Amino acid sequence: MESVGFVPLSGFAAAGKDRRACGRHSEFHGKAIGHVASSQVHRSKRDAVRMEVRMDVDYFSILGVGRCATARELKTAYRKMARQYHPDLNPSENAREKFQQCTIAYEVLTDPIKRRQLP
After folding, report:
1. 46-73 burial, b for 16+ CB within 10 Å, e for fewer?
2. pTM
3. Contacts of 86 (CB under 8 A, 6+ apart)
4. Is the model's pLDDT at 95 over the cut of 80?
5. From CA 2, how far away is CA 16, in angstroms rounded?
6. What is the pLDDT of residues 14-38, one digit of tens each?
7. Would you kindly state where each structural domain of the chain is located, as residue ranges?
8. pLDDT given at position 96
9. Helix 95-110 vs helix 71-85: crossing angle, to nearest 10
C-alpha cells in the first residue's frame, strides 16, 4: 500500500517489502507534495496587505505619545487605547473608527521602515 501525495518521514521511498532508504538528506524527506513553506506564505500575505503611510495624519497624537517614544511606550499607549475603543467593549458609534485609527498608528510607528517615512 503506497501513500498518495506524501513522502514518508521514515526515510523510505515506498511502502512494502522492498523498502529502500531515500537518503538522510533527501530534498523530499518528510514533505508533502505541493507543500509551501510557512515563510513564503507569510511573505505573500504581508505583501498583499501593504499599507501606505499617510503624511497628513499625525500618528503620534492618535496614540498620545511623543515623537521620541520607545517601543514600550508605544505598546502601552496602544493597549490602553485599544482597550478603551474596542468595539466589543465600547458601544459608542465612533469606537470602531477610533480603534482602527489607533491600530494603524501602532502598526506604522512600530515598523522602522514606515516610521522613517514620516515627516
Report:
1. eeeeeeebeeeeebbebbebeeebeeee
2. 0.56
3. 95, 99
4. yes
5. 8
6. 555 555 554 555 555 555 555 555 5
7. 1-50, 59-116
8. 93
9. 170
Residue 28, C-alpha cell as written in the block: 523530499
For the segment 54-60, the average pLDDT, to the nearest whole number, is 87
Task: Report the mean per-residue pLDDT for the chain.
Answer: 74
Give the integer Cα–Cα distance in Å for 108 and 90.
Answer: 24
Which residues, 6+ apart, have CB-to-CB distance to 9 below 8 Å?
A: 29, 30
**What cell was used for 79?**
493597549
Residue that is written with C-alpha cell 511502502 in the block = 15
Instruction: Report the alpha-carbon distance of residue 76 to residue 46 in Å, rounded.
Output: 24
The span from the CA of 1 to the CA of 108, in Å, is: 54
d(CA 101, CA 63): 9
| Nearest Cα to Cα of residue 28 among 14, 43, 42 | 14
Partners of 6 in the β-ladder: 32
Multiple choice CATH, 59-116, 1.10.10.10, 2.40.50.140, 3.40.50.970, 1.10.287.110: 1.10.287.110
